[in-house]
């Protein structure tokens, strides 16, 4: 029980909720698109069962990810992926992944669409959450993941509109989210079994690697933004 009262545990919970809000905002859009042709009486059922199925699938994927991250060099690969995801968050490309989401007027067909679409879109989410859970100690990692996901479900499903408006109004939220992913990438790389023997494993190095990852994501993201120039509406 003491593990649940530590600062590391609640810091990791906060990171997981933040990751789910930032990387899971599209899930609410996918759910809405997949269920839009259902009769009104079945729409709520489609949303609930689709969300439950997607979350259960994600917990299973994260359980595998937590086990796989113990293999040498995989944390380094995960760290590189997180840096790339963080950069994409700060400097997103102009594409629409939702155009291929098909709606259905049958309840279980819509639920299946939600689960499959969430599976395809959840790779970044799974890696980021598994990385965040590593910081809370090994004993309760999966419990932490499930708790963080449960807390974030209502935020994603019912609060996504508010969250998206806040992100539009305060772009620094996106910036800080990208840097958070860089932080997790740095701390993940620091604890990789392949390099742990060559790096001091004290807290100061752990934090230094996290800060380095956050600053790297910020620097690359800002560099890409400058290369692309201002968006068309800004120059109109």
From TrEMBL:
InterPro entries: Integral_membrane_TerC, Integral_membrane_YjbE. Keywords: Membrane, Transmembrane, Transmembrane helix. It is found in: Membrane. It is a multi-pass membrane protein. The chain crosses the membrane at residues 12-35, 47-67, 142-163, 170-189, 204-224. Belongs to the TerC family. This is TerC family protein. It comes from Ottowia flava.
């Amino acid at each position: 029980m003491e593990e649940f009262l530590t600062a590391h545990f609640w810091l990791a919970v906060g990171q997981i909720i933040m990751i789910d809000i930032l990387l899971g905002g599209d899930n609410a859009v996918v759910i809405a698109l997949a269920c839009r042709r259902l009769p009104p009486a079945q729409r709520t059922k489609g949303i609930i069962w689709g969300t439950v199925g997607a979350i259960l699938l994600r917990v299973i994927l994260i359980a595998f990810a937590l086990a796989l991250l113990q293999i040498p060099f995989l944390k380094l690969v995960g760290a590189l992926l997180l840096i790339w995801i963080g950069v994409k968050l700060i400097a997103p490309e102009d594409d629409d992944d939702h155009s291929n989401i098909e709606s259905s007027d049958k309840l279980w067909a819509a639920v299946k669409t939600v689960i499959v679409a969430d599976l395809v879109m959840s790779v970044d989410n799974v890696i980021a959450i598994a990385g965040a859970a590593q910081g809370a100690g090994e004993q309760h990692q999966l419990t932490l993941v499930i708790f963080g996901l449960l807390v974030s479900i209502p935020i994603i499903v019912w609060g996504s509109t508010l969250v998206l408006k806040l992100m539009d109004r305060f772009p620094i939220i996106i910036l800080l989210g990208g840097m958070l992913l860089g932080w997790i990438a740095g701390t993940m790389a620091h604890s990789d079994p392949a390099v742990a023997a060559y790096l001091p494993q004290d807290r100061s190095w752990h934090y230094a690697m996290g800060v380095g990852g956050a600053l790297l994501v910020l620097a690359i993201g800002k560099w890409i933004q400058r290369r692309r120039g201002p968006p068309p509406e800004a120059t109109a």
